[in-house]
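Question: does this match?
>
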Amino acid sequence: MVQRVAVIGGGAAGLCALRHLTARPEQFQAVAFEQNSRVGGTWIYTTNIGKDENGLPVFSSMYKNLRTNLPKEVMAFPDFPFKKGPPSFISHEEVLQYLEDYAIHYKLYQYIKFQTIVQTIRPLTGDNFTSWEVTYCPVKERNQSCRELFDAVIICNGHYSVPLYPDIVGLKDFAGHVIHSHDYREPESYTDLHVVCLGAAASGQDISMDIALKAKQVYLSHDKPFLTTDLPSNVEQRPGIKCLRRNSVIFNNSEEVEIDALILCTGYRYSFPFLTEECNLRIEEERITPLYKHLIHTQFHTLSFIGICKTICPFPQFHSQVRFVLSVLNGSLMLPSREVMDHDTERDYQTRLEEGLPARHAHTLGPLQWNYNDDLSSMAKFEPIPRVVQELYDYIHHHRKNHLSTYKDMNYELIDDKTFKPIQSCK
């Protein structure tokens, strides 16, 4: 019997799900729901912040000068490479074009309901079977709800759209300009200002470098070990923030400096507002349960989530996750019992806590991603991600740590499934 599958989102993960579902018309009939008028998800740059033209929260966190922090040679879906040749580190416009080309190549547009808001997703449970009621409406006619039933739902709505705001003493009294990195668009607004970027993960590092082009002074504030790389002369590292005063910041080392602006590069929250209580999904301290392999709902195996994991090489992992989910849906992969899956999930979580990681890193992979990806391919019996992806990813990770200002000037070429080589600089 052909299964009807709803895909929520038309970004990279949603397009990947559609590509593999529609390649098996004898098994699946797919429909994707996308709030925007085009594919691309977070890669759609807009100058808007706050609300869009339809009064909805702006989804994208792209800024004008963003270039990828991974080379395109490792970013690609395994079955759809980027165009060869430099540069390796590309603009958000080029990534968006790649996703549009992917959608055209695999003829995906015909399966997508654009400018559509998913209002609710609710399980309808019968005897040994669960179907899914999806209620949705047009963006411009929100009182015109429609209802459809599906055999499975694949959630691909991303996790870079709902900002996570920290509690900072004195924030309400600070007279300067404060935004979350979600709303950062261009450095010109910070010309000749003293700016603090709070947070030194990828976005904090990249945005501080971008602002340094115009700002008088940038303080990269964080509680991690200080970066060992050379930084621009007007970028200095400081500990985390102890508190704010009207025109200044006090860092955790008690140093006080006057500043004009604060950018909160403090991450994002997972959000699935369309899932009803019956879906039995819990989010506590940015840990989502009950998910087996960060992917499959252990109570409802026909509800899955692509792209939950953090600090990863995303598009190749989406490819592996989607293939794993489809193996579950078509019955070629038999999952363990719910008890075994929940135990496996809890053991993974407790191991992270024992290693000193905070609860909010329950879905952070980093170096764990390669064994995770291989585990998916081994269980579902499909070809693993080529080893060269890990080799180049790990090389870039090391190179970035030591050459943050210049690592994007290099270009790379994949030689085969195991090896790569650097090629001429684009400067």
Observations:
- The chain has a mean pLDDT of 96.
- The chain has eight helices and 22 strands.
- The two ends are 56 Å apart (CA to CA).
- Helices lie at 12-22, 72-75, 92-105, 202-211, 314-329, 338-354, 369-380, 387-402.
